[in-house]
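Encode chain A's predicted structure.
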Amino acid sequence: MNAPFLYLVTVLIWGSSWYAMRFQVGMVPVEQSIAYRFLLAGALMIGFCLLSGRRLRFGLRDHLFFAAQGVTLFAINYLLFYYALPYLASGLLAVCFSTILVMNIGNGMWLFRQRSDRAVGIGAVLGLAGLALLFWPAFANFDLGGGALLGLALSIAATYSASLGNMVSVRHKFAGVPVISSNAWGMSYGGIFTLIFALVVAPDFAFDARLPYIVSLLFLAVLASVVAFTTYLTLVQRIGADRAAYATVLFPVIALALSTLYEGYAWTWPAAAGVLLVIAGNVIVLRRPRPVATVQPAGS
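Encoded structure for chain A:
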């Protein structure tokens, strides 16, 4: 599959996953819902690897990195965002997560001595400015009181955790670890970590047997986890973590498009201008793909 197709699949699935996540909040503690999601996704991916003959046997060092990716990308990232949800508007959460683009650039320079070219920097500025216009009412009414500062801190920490998980995927590229195999182990480790955490904070397990919860769980486990994380982390290895992360800037645009169809979202001129800036930034970022890195990190 080529990079544009992988990019499109990632954006469409994750852009619509916000609706599925709404049905996960309710009678089931969020820690348990996250554990269910990634334990199911990990089991599906391990089963797929076994059936297709893909590699699952790795050394201890690789498993330590699988666990690191599981904890940062498939556990802490989601836990902190769910905890931030009561304190911040969804638009601000989307903007916070989109800063992973800047974090991936910085972490790539720090950990792998990668240099992002000017196109990525210009695209990042345009994209984040576009999101600011898109969610301007949320920015205009933002007040640090009422727990908003805590929500902002949790969102930034969640995004940085996800960025570190992206960096582990870059390490897998250097180590020759296939994306599907690393995701199978990473999601399993992330699910196990979250399950243990859930036993501590919410020991009385619950499950919502109603159709909306089950359907949303299957959507998040199969499409948003198995499919979208595979396409996204494949992009990270093919075009670089900085360019791949621009997909996060497009998620809110897809979400608002769905809101227009099903929830009567009313567009404004600033919002429309924001979308144009996001699209312009996307074109700039993706027009000249380049290798992920030219220098291999020591000890990988």
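The chain has one domain: 3-286.
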